[in-house]
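**User:** Here is a favour to ask of a fellow structure person. Please take any protein you like and set down a full record of it. No explanation is needed for now; the record alone will do.

**Assistant:**
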Amino acid sequence: MAAHPAPAELLAFAEDLADSARPVAMRYFRTALDVVAKADASPVTQADRAIEALLRVRIEARFPDHGIFGEEMGVKPGDGPVWVIDPIDGTKSFVTGLPLFGTLIALVDAGRPILGVIDMPALGERWTGQPGQALFGGAPARTSGCRTLREARFFTTTPEGFLGADAARYRRLVSQVGIRRFCGDCYAYGLLASGHCDLVAEAGLQPYDYLALVPVIEAAGGVITDWDGAALTLGSDGRVLAAATPDLHGAALAILRDRDI
């Protein structure tokens, strides 16, 4: 094993991981599931656990020095980069038969995600991102040219994700956009990378929810940060803003970071 695998090798391995996760997800999708409420009240299923266990075994076999951070099984320390896994992003969609759930895989090096995979098992769709290249189904992905809030097609998973002062900022933001759509979890960010929506804002996310999105959005020409405009890392606070263009991102950011709202 090479000490420092080439980016192409790492991305190929990440896609191979996603390939192996798909049939596991589909074996459980739209079947009777043992749904358990986690401490944060989000549901976890057999599928989440089975996928993460499989991916951990494969990562440890291929890159034993790498760290792993998964939603269901926590952190395995390592001396190298860290693989960040969300086996089923959109578990509520999964357990209700909605096909807008995904598997998210990121590789983080020196604190920043250097590659990301957004895989949609039930749809057979996939976005990948690494510096300089975002792909959807193997073809280049590119964000739209939307620059203004009044023209923006906006997504968030649910308005219930915004609490307290965040809710007030969210309401002001959505009052100014062109179209509002809800649901989708990671799928919304894939749609943004391919130019079908323009703006996504969320709060309360975990690193495994957002790190895989960063390389995809950035390589597609978009901007994705926290609500203060800072780069997303393992230590970010869970507030995420993604936009098709720097101008649109700046307009939305001005609202979300306004402490007087």
The longest strand covers residues 112-120. Residues 46 and 84 are 19 Å apart (CA to CA). The chain has two domains: 7-138, 149-256.
